[in-house]
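for the recovery benchmark. tokens below, seq after
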């Protein structure tokens, strides 16, 4: 009996620390599965009935990926097919081992107006809403956990689900005339892609409540003042501001991919795990780079200059 109790205590300790920590960065892990009543293949069959637009991914030799929401006739609103393509691109990025950074933007000088209303009308039951909620929380949580430093480039408007997507990025940049607005209250709903939870973490719960309950229009100045965005760019043109965003991001991704990716993973675990779990994850990540090529090269350089 005593032995069984000891084994049980040991199992509980393992499950609360190491197992949970390992699961956090396991590639392909989602929040919801069949045990939550979520059946991904059924969801995909529903969503593929609503075509239009695309989600495009360009991977640069610099280690920066550019993810473009491309449905300009509808202000880059997500069609059903675009929801599916976003998941496909996230999976592709999970397997991009050379990647260090990611820019998310919308085509034709605007970010995204959220969901295509044609799909929203057709998925009108509470069950449909919950299913889409679980699908997008799965996708954007996997997006957040990517070992890439990500930045949302907001031109024009980021409305509703588009505003929620910006909160899944590590950083946000705005052009001078752009706007972020969580319009959910005016649609009779609340954020459902994880946007309320992430917004409260970014700007604090009191400010988040003001922004959401007031459906406030956050222009670039207001967004900068409350800490919603990190910088307002000088450019407004599509090509110029993308170049400016790339230059801004490059200051954070200088160095070998394995080091940048380990840094992002350690910060992500700090956000999601309890203190002890996060410390253990940081320790494990250190083991992947200590004594590695970048570490040895840096030490050799220092010794050379110290002589």
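predicted aa per position
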């Amino acid at each position: 009996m005593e032995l069984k109790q000891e084994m049980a205590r040991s199992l509980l300790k393992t499950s609360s620390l190491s197992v949970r920590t390992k699961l956090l960065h396991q590639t392909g892990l989602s929040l919801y599965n069949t045990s939550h009543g979520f059946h991904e293949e059924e969801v995909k069959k529903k969503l593929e009935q609503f075509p239009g637009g695309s989600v495009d991914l360009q991977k640069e030799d610099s280690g920066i990926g550019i993810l473009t929401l491309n449905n300009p006739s509808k202000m880059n609103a997500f069609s059903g097919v675009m929801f599916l393509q976003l998941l496909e691109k996230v999976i592709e990025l999970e397997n991009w081992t050379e990647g260090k950074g990611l820019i998310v933007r919308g085509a034709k000088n605007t970010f995204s107006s959220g969901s295509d209303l044609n799909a929203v009308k057709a998925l009108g039951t509470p069950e449909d809403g919950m299913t889409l909620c679980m699908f997008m929380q799965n996708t954007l949580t996997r997006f957040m956990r990517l070992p890439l430093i990500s930045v949302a480039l907001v031109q024009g408007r980021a409305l509703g689900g588009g505003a929620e997507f910006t909160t899944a990025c590590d950083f946000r940049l705005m052009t001078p005339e752009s706007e972020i607005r969580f319009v959910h209250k005016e649609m009779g709903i609340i954020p459902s892609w994880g946007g309320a939870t992430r917004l409260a973490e970014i700007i604090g719960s009191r400010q988040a409540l003001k922004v959401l309950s007031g459906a406030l229009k956050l222009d670039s100045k207001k967004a900068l003042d409350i800490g919603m965005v990190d910088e307002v760019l000088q450019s407004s043109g599509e090509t110029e501001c993308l170049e400016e965003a790339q230059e801004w991001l490059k200051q954070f991704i200088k160095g070998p991919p394995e080091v940048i990716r380990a840094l992002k993973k350690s910060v992500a675990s700090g956000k999601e795990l309890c203190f002890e779990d996060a410390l253990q994850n940081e320790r494990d990540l250190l083991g992947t780079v200590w004594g590695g090529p970048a570490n040895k090269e840096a030490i050799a350089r220092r010794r050379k200059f110290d002589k």
